[in-house]
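Fill-in record for tRNA dimethylallyltransferase.
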Amino acid sequence: MTTVTKHKVLLIAGPTAVGKTALSLALAKQLNGEIISGDSMQVYRHLDIGTAKIMPEEQAGIPHHLIDIKNIDQRFTVAEFVSRTTALIIDISARGKLPIIVGGTGFYLQSLLAGYQFGPADNEPDMAYRQAWFDRAAVEGSDVAWMALKQRDPQAATAIAPANLVRVVRALEYVHTTGQLFSEQADTHGDTLDAYTLCLTAERALLYTRINQRVDQMVAAGLEQEARWLFDQGGAMLPAGKGIGYHEWFPYFNGEQTRDESIAKIKQDSRRYAKRQLTWFRNKMSVDWINLLEHPELRASIDQRLASWLS
């Protein structure tokens, strides 16, 4: 029997403005780690302020990956994230270091952990198909998805527990999008990770205050000028032009709203995004929650949890 090497991977997740970057730097130093960005916008060159990108001089000598790898007119898909991150995990682990993935793009992180497979003609997952099964299972129970898989790929159904809805839906989606049996493709990724996920959180009022303050700091640092440059390059027509902190400026540049209205909209969109992030991590992923902003004394408990996981 072939023994599959399980790579240790630490994920630091959570909503925007909750303190992920500071914790990731501390843990990377402590655990001899390298950091992989799990943020869908930090891949873009020249967009530094609005993405809260950690700059080279702030990285404290810790290698950072998946930052500044795309031009603003290039798409960055979840399939590419999974592929690139998988390769990085293998490389970092082979060099005796710990891969630490930091970010708030929940779907990217979930896809990595669940080991979603993306065929060559299927560069993006079928979100509607996937969500339809999750919705149906919420009403009829997870067995309904497993029974469907049993009909379409009995061997896969035998290998997957009916209660493991994410994996069952993943198998159904693979059959649906590729026309091939899930049981016949080599799952070379999802089951080879020994992942531990810390999810930072905070009381909502405090989090929203921090978000508003962060937006003000970004504006003071030159966010408007960064957004104006993006607007002049094509704005909303570009993949990068859809990001929060950027597209809200475009109506102002077009003379359709005031500057203050644009800033207020960025704050509103950022707060709503943080709420969606928390909901995603709560409902879609298995995480250990921790509130360091209000309870810094819990930092020691993180070390204890990690020591147990790494042993």
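KEY FINDING: The radius of gyration is 21 Å.
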